[in-house]
């Protein structure tokens, strides 16, 4: 099976203490599900049990109902650069088993979508995400999830909503939106800023109530934001994409603790010192 | 703006106490984003700030970078049966602004995808989800999230994974899988059962670590499961789809409390009585 977790060197902040730490992050990478030569879907998933994933997806999205509906299935590494990571499951279905329309969720290339090509394919932000000398204090970051929650109108009633917010360069909450989908909440706050003439979001932060996935980092980069503050943990691909484009990525921001996954030199401690000097991150 | 929450009559179980309760649930409904006559994507979202949602989506997925890139935008009710609910945002882009390939995430019909037609369009399960007389005890339901967590190998290390499990008719945990995506974790456990010859999942439960969305209920129905036990809350559309096909839907299963959103007559209290008689649910 695939590797489900990997490690990244991060800076872990606990109250006044900030230190480097080799952290486990969940792996996120694309898997194409193909029948014959047709890729039906490309899903961002955690590697492991990829055949089960493809079979289960075909139950809900095709007309697969029993094992005999699948007459052959295999895991393939279509991308020679992908370091032995399965990127495609090819399935042969029994005659008469119905298929859905192909759904290309990600830009697809000749090889399907491979992790190694996914990162370079993400467009670079149109300019620097942070002004020269831009920094943010640990205390300011720690306050953000609570400040966002105070502005969530629907949350307390249902417990079923994600939220996203944009914080401007002065630390003010510009907008908070909620949605059943985390990605939709992020789209709503970015759309608000676009319509108000506020893009790119240079020196602004995007706060998200849940996990930081590849897709969320991609949206923040397209909007030109300085960084993301997530209440939960980021995936491997989110960390790697944030680092590639020098986006500040903070996760597990709860109470007096947070982790900095990318650009720790932008984060200042109580004494006004950066929690890490520039260029030290591994 | 749209209505973000709605109410459903549920049964709330708190220890030995079970009573009907008018509960707030988050609304989930489809929104098509169209440029000209082309629907680019249909996303399941919570109504409200739909123009912002469409604008923000176009920042990440098209080449929209400033307000002037959008020369017109409007919210439409394409489906006359949709009870004044916006189902489509139409956008006109300035000349030269690049567009992504259309991505049809849901089966689309002539009107786009409308809430009122989404539910009837979901295929019915191939047979009854529960055998005659099938019931489950409150205590058994309350144990499931903890039992699943004990089998989650990667979770404690990363904090970034969802999990799903299948519990057989005897209450045994058949399989647990983890993934960065909740829907992938559900696909993996259903795929496992398919490959083991275990579909349909009559009298079996699917446990999910997060929220229960429309898509998760759709997957459980396709697999023929008796019910879903979710650690977090379901959406309006998840509740409605579960009721339509008589799927047991339990949410917010934590400690000694849970909510039953669909089929409460299948859930037995300590004394062996159903928490609600059949047919009482509103």
Describe the structure.
- The structure is a homodimer of 282-residue chains.
- Chain A is 24% helix and 30% strand.
- By secondary structure, chain A is α/β, with parallel strands linked by helices.
- In chain A, strand 3 and strand 4 form a beta hairpin.
- The relative contact order of chain A is 0.15.
- The interface between A and B is large, with 72 and 72 residues.
Major interchain interface with per-chain residue totals: A-B, 72 and 72 residues
Please tally the β strands of chain A and state the result.
14
Radius of gyration of chain A: 20 Å
Mean pLDDT of chain A: 87
Q: How large is the share of residues in beta strands of chain A?
A: 25-35%
Going across the major beta sheet of chain A, what is the strand order?
2-1-13-12-11-10-8-9
Give a quick set of tags describing it.
homodimer, 282 residues, alpha/beta, eight-stranded mixed sheet, four-stranded mixed sheet, 24% helix, elongated
């Amino acid at each position: 099976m695939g590797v489900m977790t990997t490690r990244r060197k991060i800076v872990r902040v606990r109250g006044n203490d900030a230190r480097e730490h080799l952290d486990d992050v969940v792996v996120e990478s694309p898997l194409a599900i193909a029948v014959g030569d047709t890729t039906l879907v490309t899903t961002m998933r955690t590697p492991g049990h990829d055949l089960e994933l493809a079979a289960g997806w075909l139950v809900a999205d095709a007309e697969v109902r029993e094992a005999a509906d699948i007459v052959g299935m295999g895991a393939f590494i279509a991308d020679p650069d992908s370091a032995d990571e399965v990127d495609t499951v090819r399935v042969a279905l029994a005659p008469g088993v119905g298929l859905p329309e192909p759904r290309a969720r990600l830009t697809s290339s000749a090889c399907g979508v491979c992790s190694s090509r996914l990162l370079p394919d993400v467009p670079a932000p149109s300019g620097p995400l942070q002004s020269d000398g831009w920094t943010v204090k640990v205390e300011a970051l720690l306050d953000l999830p609570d400040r966002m929650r105070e502005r969530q109108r629907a949350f307390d009633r249902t417990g079923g909503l994600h939220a996203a917010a944009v914080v401007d360069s002065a630390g003010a909450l510009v907008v908070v939106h909620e949605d059943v989908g985390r990605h939709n909440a992020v789209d709503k706050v970015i759309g608000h800023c676009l319509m108000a003439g506020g893009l790119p979001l240079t020196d602004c932060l995007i706060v998200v109530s849940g996990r930081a996935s590849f897709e969320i980092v991609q949206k923040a980069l397209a909007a030109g934001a300085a960084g993301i503050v997530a209440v939960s943990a980021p995936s491997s691909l989110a960390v790697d994409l944030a680092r590639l484009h020098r986006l500040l990525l903070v996760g597990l921001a709860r109470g007096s603790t947070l982790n900095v996954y990318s650009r720790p030199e932008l984060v200042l401690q109580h004494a006004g010192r950066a929690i890490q000097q520039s260029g030290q991150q591994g």
